Amino acid sequence: MKSVIPIFIIFLIVSIIKAMDKKHKQFKKYIEKASSILIVSHRGPDMDAFCSMLLVKEFLNIYYPKKKVTIKAKRSPSFNIPRMHDINVVKRIDEGDEDLIIITDMSGLEFVCDSMDSLINSEKDVVVIDHHQQISKDHNLVINEHMSSATEQVIETFKQILGKKFKLTNEIAALGQYGINADTGRFLYETTTSNTFRLFADLFELNPIDLEEIAYKNNKVPRGSSSVIAHLLEEIVIEGDMAYTYVSLEDMESHNWKDSDVGEAINFIKNNYLRFIQGVHWGFLLKPSLKEEGVWWLSLRGTKSYQEVDGIAEALGGGGHKFASGARLEYSKGTSVEKVLEDVLGTIKEVTEK
Question: Is the pTM of this model over 0.85?
Answer without folding.
Answer: no
